Amino acid sequence: MTTEKHDTISRIVRDDYRTADVFRKHGINYCCGGNSTLEEVCRLQNLDIISICKELSDATQTITIPASLRVDEWSIDFLVDYIRNVHHAYLKQALPTLETTLISFVNNHRSKFPFLDSLHQEFSSLSVLLTEHIAEEEEKIFPYMKQVSHTHKHKEIYGKLFVKTLSQPLTKVFQSKHTHISAQLVEIRNLSNQYRFPDNACTNHRVVFQKLRELDADIVQYRHLENNVLFPKAIILERELLQL
Q1: Of 13, 26, 114, 181, which has the most beta carbons under 10 Å away?
Q2: Is the pTM for the entire model greater than 0.90?
């Protein structure tokens, strides 16, 4: 990202919503009062403009995974580590931050956009569900999957007994939670008009909806890796262990 010191704070955020987190971190107003230039704000708040520009540049880096990457060939162990270190880590950071931002936005715009209370309620429910799901995966499901993979690889004789330690098949474990997550995500999309905001929307409105869209995209990729790659692999191994 190329940031000019004469750009206003509001314009910088409108050009890339990810810069909002940097300004929020330093207590810089980027919405209705964000008409001062970056240079002016740094001078008034005694901030190093070079450091701020570096933070803005780091915040707006885009990292993508090539579509040609064969994730279906990844091992269960690698898939588990990838999901935990990429998607879980992102959600743990994004959910509470977005909750705080959304509360502030709703409180200031409730009269103009009556649907915001419902949007916040759905987001909060989704956040709780995802947080519980992540904890269950990291504490119970993922260790179980790794053990299933190890047991299957080494053809260990206690494999059939080990599978029963989860108390229910993996198909039942993930289907219920993922169905609820999907339903709430659809509701959030509908309430936010697919994350579209009016042309005259304030900067904070744009940031909130763009962050919701970013969250949505991550959840879709996260669920794809689990539903279509990780869980099918683990379920096959689980069934084969039961046949030993």
Answers
A1: 13
A2: no
Rg (CA), the chain: 22
SS3 194: coil
Beta-ladder partners of 158: none
Instruction: Please tell me the distance from the alpha carbon of residue 211 to that of residue 195, in angstroms, as a whole number.
Output: 9
Classify 69 as helix, strand or coil. coil
Residue 239: CB atoms within 10 Å: 13
* Signed CA dihedral, 79, 80, 86, 90: sign only: positive
Q: What are phi and psi of 8, to 5 degrees?
A: -75, 155
Alpha carbons 148 and 150: distance in angstroms, whole number:
5
Say if CB 144 and CB 166 are below 8 A apart: yes
pLDDT in tens, 32-69: 666 889 999 999 999 999 999 999 998 888 777 777 78
> Three-state DSSP class for 41?
helix
Q: What is the DSSP string of 86-106?
A: IIIHHHHHHHHHHHHHHHHHH
Which token pair is 148? 């299933």
* In the block, residue with structure tokens 């931002």: 101
Report d(CA 147, CA 125) in Å as an integer: 32
Contact present, 140 and 123 (Cβ < 8 Å):
no
